Amino acid sequence: MSVHKKPNGTWFVQYRIPGERTPRREYFPKGPLGERQARIRDAEIKLDKTRGQEPVVAPGKTYLDTVAQIYVVERKTRGASQRWLHDFALLMNNYVLPGLTQLPLDAITYADVIAFVDKTWGHRKLATRQRYLGYLKALFRFAVEHGHTTNNPLAKWRKTKEPRHDMRLTLPDLGKIMKHAAPHLQWAIEVEWELGTRPGVTELFAIRWADVDFEQCRIHVKGTKTHDADRLVPITPQFRDRLAQMRAELQGEYVIEYKGHPVTRVNKGLARAAQRAGIPYPVRMYDIRHLFASTMLANGADLAAVSKILGHSNITTTQKHYYHVLKGEMNRAIRTRPPISTPE
Fold it and tell me: Residue range 52-79: average pLDDT?
């Protein structure tokens, strides 16, 4: 039992209920009035304890941080990665909980959530805002499913279709970017071009030297996005030798690093390198993955094999995004029809 003040000025009382793994919190307004209310509530809880009674939790007084703690424990028991747990905790502690714990779960409205997202991430890209809203929707849904509240303010929220990114990157332009990139970015681009992984912390930047099988010429990509994302990607003997060279030079356990530390993103460095190279359009690391697949398919690679390398859950996904680069497929399809034969 104790009274605390959050960085945003709100007050809360924290106490434990037997049988619950995480402590309960009850929140109060900012300022002297909120502090006084919190201390009165703390005294009530302590009096109940002295009498041998458990604190009576007021109906509808469960807050988002209580559910977030339980949700993290549940995801951990279901095998969530340490990286996901770490990133989710940062998102909650640094942004969500300070902004959405002034009200109990039952009182949070759709307007409250949208106003919070606009204030906190209004300057971010649509994809980023929608990803964070997706996390919040899952958290509210978890709270409803486990009886913490009947209120899910995001129950009817749906993702807005994002504008399609114009894939314009060419192999010559990628070579120009490489020339103007910092050494660790050059290496990241090289690895991405050889493997075609999803260029983020779940795949490209998660590859360790322990995942490289130098004898069998393959790399274990421990992806998590789909059931086929965890895969073995073959590499050429030339790239195997290049990996061996870089392993002797680098310091850490990760294939891609910067001064011995893991890398989590290179987007800004890539944008600067593209600008220095005179590339007149925006370039993302994901464009290299797209170019990787498009080039193989345009040169006659088997669609199913490319789908496996990319870690797609089924070949339909690959067809949907890359069929347009299969040169001559429609012409070949038309030519498979025999001419109509007419009787003489």
Answer: 81
R_g over Cα of the chain: 27
How does residue 58 score in pLDDT terms, banded at 50, 70 and 90? low
CB distance 307 to 315 below 8 Å: yes
- 227 φψ region: left (φ > 0), alpha (ψ -120 to 50), beta (else): alpha
Answer yes or no: are the C-beta atoms of 289 and 196 closer than 8 Å: yes
Q: Please, what is the average pLDDT of the chain?
A: 88
Closest CA to 38 of 68, 4, 69: 4
Query: Which of 203 and 98 is assigned the larger pLDDT?
Result: 203
- Is the pLDDT at 201 greater than 90? The verdict is no
Neighbours of 302 (CB within 10 A): 10
Grouping H, G, I as helix, E, B as strand and the rest as coil, residue 131 is helix
Task: Tell me how far apart the alpha carbons of residues 238 and 251 are, in angstroms, rounded to a whole number.
Answer: 22
Contact 267, 285 (CB under 8 A): yes
Distance, CA of 216 to CA of 47 (rounded, Å): 68
Higher pLDDT, 80 or 271: 271
3 in Cβ contact with 38 (< 8 Å): yes
DSSP string, 38-83: HHHHHHHHHHHHHTT-PPPPPTT---HHHHHHHHHHHHHHTT--HH
Cα–Cα distance between 329 and 180 in angstroms, integer? 37
Question: What distance in Å separates the CA atoms of residue 148 and residue 11, rounded to the nearest whole number?
Answer: 21
3-state secondary structure 170-235: CHHHHHHHHHCCCHHHHHHHHHHHHHCCCCCCCCHHHCEHHHEECCCCEEEEECCCCCCCEEEEEC
pLDDT: is 165 or 178 the higher one? 178
- Would you tell me how many other CB atoms lie within 10 Å of the CB of residue 235? 20
Rounded to an integer, what distance in angstroms lies between the CA atom of residue 324 and that of residue 298?
Answer: 9
Residue 147 has pLDDT above 80, yes or no: yes
